[in-house]
């Protein structure tokens, strides 16, 4: 917890140095103001109690002083709240940025495909948002209450010193009980995070457009509503159980405080009746007991909050300082001259999962176009992830011009690669940005973007949009460029696919081009045209094309057939057809479904 506390304080300090200092000063002044006001009050009462012998001007000055100090304390409280909000804002900005940086720094995909990581990420965000402010508030409260306590201890010592012992005795068990409660609460938050995320998922399914069609068609609304309700009831039920225990424990300690305060009051009242204690001392004593009990309770509760937040904040500290999921190489990926070689590559997603690749050995020669064929689940997309170094092979290795991918810096390797993934992204960005993000150096280069769009024949469609290339492609956000209230425009599946291809074409000079099912959503004309375009683009360039439509791979220099986790066959289309193996069977099967006597043979 010490490491997390230090990290939290450092983070607050880095985010808002001036604000934190101001808060501490405000807290010190505010803390001192309370006992000063009480002492002035006591002097005032004692002066009034002197009756006719009282000094009228002194009493007036004391009354004014009490009021002034009291109002200063109130203003300081408001000022503290405002400065606190400023510090909190600075911390939030800093934390959000740090969290995003930590996630961006992950080289591979393993964490993103692991639910435990997503739980931790949410816990880290929660801890990082709350811990720095809770820690700051606690530090401030500590300053404020220490001054308050110091200011009132004198009053207790002067009137009935044993009261101090009673107050401390009552505070010790409250402290440990609060500590236990806080730890339990933090543990509940951790345990429930998966359920909380599930509930968010069900709610997003219900509210967002992506699933709206199926939910209506299949009548899933009530099912999802019930599941969302169940998840929420479960997580909030666990939270409530912790609160119930809190209630019992905190009520018990409030009672104990009341008994202690009653004993103290009884003692000083008896003293006042016997004339050994002045009326001013009685009022000061009662104020001191209330303030000290308030200070102890507040510090104990805040310490509990600190304990809880720090437990969650540990996830943030661990995440920010965690070892990378893949150790990045240091060698810059050179221009590809010889080719990419897979040497006995074995891969599975984790130790419990079955092997996806079981010794794949093949070569993608530089300048050659290679087609990859295989049944659903054969491991084609997995192979693409390994080639982009999103994962490392469990056994075996992949070589870029003879250098193991593990030795290459992933960023430079990826800069030399252009890819259209099977599950490509549809960004809620403008049409130009949807293409331009394919190469950040060309994000503002409209000419390059338009050229890429023209190759996949989406240029004209984009120009016809209300704001042309500046049109927002989204139905979730308002397109402010078009005017308030204008929703963005949505594209059809095939149009989105063309955009994804155009995005990859922003890297026309990349050494290695990967296309994973680039034409699956295209209409017949577009597919034909894309085939022609890809043939031109791939000519003389290193490329890997994955497709279930075998006719699009026909002219590849080499076709690799993946089956059972290994390369089952490889060769040119003619060689594979002559070999009459699996590829030939699949090709004939597909061709037969197109046979029609009205189609003229070439
Ligand atoms: N992130 C993952 N975690 C665990 N298993 C996975 C993951 N991604 C894929 N798999 C499994 O790996 C196997 C290969 O999947 P992959 O997506 O590579 O197949 P594919 O050949 O591209 O299939 P398709 O032709 O259907 O696109 C499948 O059995 C799949 O369930």
TrEMBL record:
SMART domains the UniProt entry points to: AAA
Compartments in which it is found: Cell membrane
Gene3D superfamilies linked: ABC transporter type 1, transmembrane domain, P-loop containing nucleotide triphosphate hydrolases
ABC transmembrane type-1 domain boundaries: 23-308
Transmembrane segments: 20-45, 57-79, 149-176, 253-273, 285-304
SUPFAM superfamilies in the cross-refs: ABC transporter transmembrane region, P-loop containing nucleoside triphosphate hydrolases
Keyword Disulfide bond (UniProt): no
GO-annotated molecular function: ABC-type transporter activity; ATP binding; ATP hydrolysis activity; ATPase-coupled lipid transmembrane transporter activity
Cross-referenced Pfam families: ABC_tran
Record membrane topology: Multi-pass membrane protein
Alphabetical list of InterPro entries matching this protein: AAA+_ATPase, ABC1_TM_dom, ABC1_TM_sf, ABC_transporter-like_ATP-bd, ABC_transporter-like_CS, P-loop_NTPase, Type_1_exporter
Every ABC transporter domain range: 340-589
CC terms in the record's Gene Ontology section: plasma membrane
Keywords attached to this entry: ATP-binding, Membrane, Nucleotide-binding, Transmembrane, Transmembrane helix
Source taxon at top rank: Bacteria
The protein, known as: ABC transporter
Organism: Lentzea guizhouensis
């Amino acid at each position: 917890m010490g490491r997390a506390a230090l990290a939290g304080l450092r983070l607050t300090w880095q985010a808002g140095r001036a604000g934190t200092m101001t808060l501490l000063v405000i807290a010190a002044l505010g803390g001192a103001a309370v006992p000063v006001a009480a002492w002035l009050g006591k002097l005032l009462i004692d002066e009034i109690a002197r009756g006719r012998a009282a000094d009228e001007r002194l009493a007036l000055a004391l009354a004014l002083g009490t009021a002034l100090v009291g109002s200063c304390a109130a203003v300081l409280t408001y000022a503290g709240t405002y400065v606190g909000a400023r510090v909190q804002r600075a911390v939030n900005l800093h934390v959000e940025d740090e969290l995003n940086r930590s996630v961006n720094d992950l080289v591979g995909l393993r964490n993103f495909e692991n639910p435990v990581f997503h739980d931790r990420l949410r816990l880290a965000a929660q801890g990082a948002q709350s811990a720095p402010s809770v820690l700051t508030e606690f530090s401030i409260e500590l300053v404020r209450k220490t001054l308050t306590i110091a200011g009132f201890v004198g009053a207790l010592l002067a009137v009935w010193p044993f009261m101090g012992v009673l107050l401390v005795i009552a505070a010790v068990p409250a402290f440990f009980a609060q500590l236990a409660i806080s730890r339990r609460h933090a543990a509940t938050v951790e345990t429930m995070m998966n359920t909380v995320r599930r509930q968010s998922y069900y709610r997003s399914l219900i509210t967002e457009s992506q699933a709206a069609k199926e939910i209506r068609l299949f009548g899933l609304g009530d099912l999802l509503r019930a599941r969302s309700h169940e998840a929420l009831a479960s997580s909030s039920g666990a939270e409530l159980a912790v609160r119930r225990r809190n209630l019992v424990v905190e009520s018990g300690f409030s009672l104990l405080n009341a008994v202690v305060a009653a004993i103290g009051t009884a003692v000083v009242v008896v003293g006042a009746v016997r004339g050994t204690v002045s009326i001013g001392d009685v009022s000061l004593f009662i104020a001191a007991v209330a303030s000290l009990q308030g200070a102890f309770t507040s510090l104990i509760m805040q310490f509990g909050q600190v304990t809880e937040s720090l437990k969650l904040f540990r996830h943030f500290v661990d995440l920010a300082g965690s070892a990378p999921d893949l150790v990045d190489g240091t060698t810059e990926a050179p221009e590809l001259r010889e080719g990419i070689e897979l040497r006995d590559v074995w891969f599975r997603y984790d130790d419990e999962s079955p092997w996806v690749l079981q010794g794949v050995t093949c070569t993608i020669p530089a300048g050659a176009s290679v087609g990859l064929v295989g049944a659903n689940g054969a491991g084609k997309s997995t192979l693409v992830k390994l080639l982009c170094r999103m994962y490392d092979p469990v056994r075996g290795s992949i070589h870029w011009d003879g250098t193991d991918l593990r030795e290459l810096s992933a960023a430079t390797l990826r800069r030399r690669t252009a890819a259209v993934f099977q599950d490509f992204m549809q960004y809620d960005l403008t049409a130009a940005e949807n293409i331009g993000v394919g190469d950040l150096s060309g994000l503002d280069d409209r000419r390059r973007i338009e050229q890429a769009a023209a190759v996949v024949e989406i240029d004209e469609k984009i120009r016809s949009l209300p704001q042309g290339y500046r049109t927002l492609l989204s139905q979730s956000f308002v397109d402010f460029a078009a005017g308030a209230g204008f929703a963005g425009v949505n594209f059809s599946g095939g149009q989105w696919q063309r955009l994804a291809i155009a995005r990859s074409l922003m890297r026309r000079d990349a050494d290695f081009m990967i296309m994973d099912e680039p034409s699956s959503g295209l209409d017949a004309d577009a597919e034909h045209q894309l085939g022609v375009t890809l043939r031109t683009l791939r000519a003389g360039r290193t490329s890997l094309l994955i497709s279930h439509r075998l006719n699009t791979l026909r002219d590849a220099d080499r076709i690799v057939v993946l089956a059972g986790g290994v390369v089952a066959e490889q060769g040119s289309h003619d060689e594979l057809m002559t070999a009459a193996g699996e590829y030939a069977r699949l090709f004939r099967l597909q061709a037969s479904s197109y046979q029609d006597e009205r189609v003229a043979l070439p």
